Amino acid sequence: MRKSSAKDKELEYRSTLLRAWKKFHAEQLEAALAGVHADVMSRLMAELKHLRSARELIDFIAAQNWSVVSYDDRAVALHEINRAITALRERHNMSPFDDGMPGDRPNVFQSIRGIVTGYKND
Question: What is this structure's pTM?
Answer without folding.
Answer: 0.83
